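Can you please make up a whole protein chain along with its backbone structure tokens because I've never seen that pairing?
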Amino acid sequence: MKIGIVSNSKICMPLVSYLGDYNKAGVILYLGKSRRPDVSANEILALCRTKGIAVHTESNAAEIYQWQQLHTPDIIFFSGYSYKVDVEQLSGVPKGIFNIHFGKLPQYKGPSPVFWQLKNGERSIGLAIHEMTNTLDSGPIVWEQNINNEEYHTYNYINQIFSELQVGGVLSIIEKIATKQITDKISQNATEANYYKRPQLADVMINWDKMEAKVILDLIKACNSWNNGAITLINGYELKILDAEKGANKLTKETPGKITIREHGFSVACINDEVLNINFFNMNNTYIPARHAGFYGLKTGQIFISKI
């Protein structure tokens, strides 16, 4: 079976690596252009050279249709590809075209499902593989996996975990098709569907006047480390909180966003008389432990701005 992989993200690398060993003679990669500066095509290309995998490097998005017609893969998996594809133009893929989506479906359609699942504080984070249609993230689900949302989970960590877990899902689908087993298909319930756009500035900013401490901690997890933390503003400067924890003590009638500097760190008042102890933050592209906050101009009584 000739397996085609389409991606413009490093999340495809575990899949490429394993399939390169699993099916050496029949893996081809379509490597799309990335919109993200942290994705190095050289890393993916080096892996493919090591595994002996043929790669087509995209110049423009329309090339994907010629690539499919030229190489005629039996099955195609999309793993982290940013551009909309006309599935009907990818004709002649006998075993099917599948999308690997790092989110629960249909609850978390859209380009950044890991971010939104973490920000929304979901108890579990989902990964789904579904048949592709011309409606985004809407085809029948053929494989899915959920993991518990742990306190130590972050955006980057979940993407790494799902990059590994997707391998098992792809292998399960391939083996069922190869042995002519019926692949279970779960139609998505349209009444449960939600679409989440790519995060904008307002989505990664802390609103001290409205957000409980737990909600802020969820946002910090969702922003690490692709955004270098959740954003707040003070004295015209942007400060990004990278690590924090809910304080054990209650504060009475403190203004949300008010800073208290201590000898070995600093804390911020939240709504509901809660307090957030900051452990690590980023300011002016400098990573700073909380115990040094005073050296960077932060003072007791200052108040973080809640709105842009």
In short: The mean pLDDT is 93.
